[in-house]
Amino acid sequence: MRIDTAAGSILCDPWVNPAYFASWFPFPDNSQLDWAALGDVDYLYVSHLHRDHFDAAHLKRYVSKDATVLLPEFPTSEMEDELRALGFTKFLKAPNEQVVELDGGLKIMIQALTSPTDGPIGDSSLWVEYDGVRLLNQNDARPTDLSVFAELGHVHAHMLQFSGAIWYPMVYELPQAAKTAFGKQKRDRQFDRTWRYIDDLKADHVFPIAGPPCFLDDALWQFNDIHGDEGNIFPDQSVFLAEYAKVGGTNGIVLLPGSVAEVTTEGASTTHPVPVEEFFANKVAHLEEMRERKRPIIEAEKASWRHPEVDVLGEMKRRIEPLLDESIYLAKGVGGPVRFDLVGYDGESVESIVVDFPGKEVRPYADEKVRYRFRTERALIEHLLHIGEVDWVNSLFLSCRFSAARIGQYNEFVYAFFKCLSEERLQYAEGWYDEHERAVDAEDITLDGWVVQRRCPHLKADLSRFGIVEGDQLTCQLHGWKFDMASGRCLTSVGHKIRAHRADEQTPAPAGEALS
Q1: Which segments constitute the Rieske domain (predicted)?
Q2: What 8-state DSSP symbol labels residue 172?
Q3: CA–CA separation, 426 vs 232, rounded Å?
Q4: Average pLDDT, stretch 195-211?
Q5: Please, which pLDDT band fits residue 219 given cuts at 50, 70 and 90?
Q6: Which of 101, 195, 301, 503 is the 20 to 30 A CA-CA neighbour of 24?
Q7: Closest Cα partner for 10 from 77, 140, 104, 82?
C-alpha cells in the first residue's frame, strides 16, 4: 500500500516476490505494476520481517534509497541491519506509541509489539494523520486493544488482516474431517477477531488489505480457497465482504493492485483497474494463469535448495546445541524431544534427527516416543543451514512444505525456539519470558459468574474485552486460546495457567506457575 499526501508519500510493506520456499505469492498479482514509479517515495515503512512483508529483492531493486525508513522500536536491530544492507541510509526511529510530526504537517505514530510470538521478534502498526484525515494500517499486528490509536481522534480508514497466515491445520497428519473442523474453527476465530478490532476503532471505512497468499506450486495448490472447503483458513477479500455483511458491516472497501482510494473526512471514493466483483468471480482463471506464468520462478527456486555437501546432523548440532545449553524458559517450555524426519532426494529414504530439549543435545533418533514431529524434505533443511537462517518459522514452517504430528496440545515454545536460532534472539526471548512469567497479575474481573485474572496468561490480552465464558470454559478471542476455569488449565497449549474461581466461592483457586 502506498499512502500519498501533499506532505509526502509512504510506501508500506511492498511484497512482490514469492516467500517461504516459493510457496506464498501475493494475490491478486501485483508484479505487473509500475514499481519504478511506486518505489519513488519519501518514506518507507516495513511492519515486520516476515518475508511476505519484507521483500528484500524488491526493496533493493525498486524502492528509492533516498526514502526515509520509518523504523518501529523493536528490541533487536535486525530490521535496521537488513535495510542498511540493502542500501537504505536514512532512518527515523519512531519512539513507541509517540506521535512524530514529519515535514509539512504529516504526522505518524508506530506501535511496536515485541513478544517473541509477534512476527519474527516484532510486529507493528502505522497510524498516519494529514490535514485532519487519519489512517491506521494495522496490517498483521494483533495488539490487545486499539485505544492508543482511538485516543488520537476519529479514524477515517482502517486497514487490517482478516485471513489466515499460518500452517495450521493444513499440515497436520489428521483425518480430513478433523482438519476441516479445526480449519472452520480457526476461520471463524479469524473473522471474530477482525470484527472485534473493527468495532474497537469504529473507522469510517474498513480496508481488508492483509489478505491471503495464493499457492501456485502444484504440491500446494489445494490450499487455495477455491475448492468449496469450509475449513480453508485463507478466505479472500470477496469472502470478507460477504461475512462482514452478515454482522452488519457496510463500510468495507476492497482494493486490487492498481486501485486508488481517495479518503477525506467526508467519505471515500475508489477507482479500480477492473471491477472488483468481476475479478473475484474469475478467481480460478486468474490463479491458473498466474500459476503458469510463475512456474519457471518456482522451478528455479527449487533447483537452489539442494546442498548435499552439508552435514545436516553435524550442522544442527553445531548451531543448535549451544542455544539449548543457554535456554531455560524455552527448553523447559518445550519439555521433551522434537523429531525431524528428513526425506531424501529419492523421496523415500528418511533420516530422523532429534532436538532433545531436556538432554540439551541434537542426536539421531533413538526409537523413543516424541510428542512433536515434523517431516520435510532434507533439501529444505540443507538450505536453511547453508544460508545460516536464524528463523525456521519465517521460512520452513510458513512454507507449508512439511507435515506435522503432535501428542497433546499446541506448544508455543517449540515455535518460539525455532524462531530464535541466534544468540541475540534467544537471549531476548529468554529475557522476555523471564520478565513476564515472574510478573504477578493481581487484577481480577468478573465474567459470567467467574472471578478471573484480567490479563490472558498467553499474551496479556484484556479478558474484560476479549474473554468469552461458555459453561466452565473461557476463550480469549484475540488468539482463540481456551482455559478450563475450574482447574485453571490451558486447553490450547502447554505452559499457561489461569487464575479463576466462581464468584460465589470465598477462596480463589491458587494461581499456577506459567511453566508448571
Answers
A1: 451-491
A2: B
A3: 33
A4: 96
A5: very high
A6: 195
A7: 104
Distance CA 303, CA 306 (A): 7
Q: Are 49 and 394 in contact (CB under 8 A)?
A: yes
Mean pLDDT of the chain, nearest integer: 93
Q: Please, where are the H alpha helices in 123-246?
A: 147-150, 176-201, 237-246
- What is the 8-class DSSP label of residue 24? B
**414 within 8 A of 40, measured Cβ to Cβ:** no
What is the pairing mode between strands 43-45 and 8-12? parallel
For the entire predicted model, the pTM comes to 0.86
What span, in angstroms and rounded, lies between the C-alpha atoms of 344 and 328?
33
pLDDT in tens, 48-59: 999 999 999 999
Q: Tell me, what amino acid is at 269?
A: S
What are the backbone dihedrals phi and psi of residue 130, each rounded to the nearest 5 degrees, phi first?
-150, 130
Work out whether the CA dihedral 213, 218, 221, 223 comes out positive or negative: negative
Give the confidence band of 513 by pLDDT, cuts at 50, 70, 90: very low
Q: What are 335-364's pLDDT values in tens digits?
A: 999 999 999 999 999 999 999 999 999 999
Q: What is the per-residue pLDDT for 512?
A: 41
Matching residue, cell 483425518: 175
CA distance 40 to 65: 9
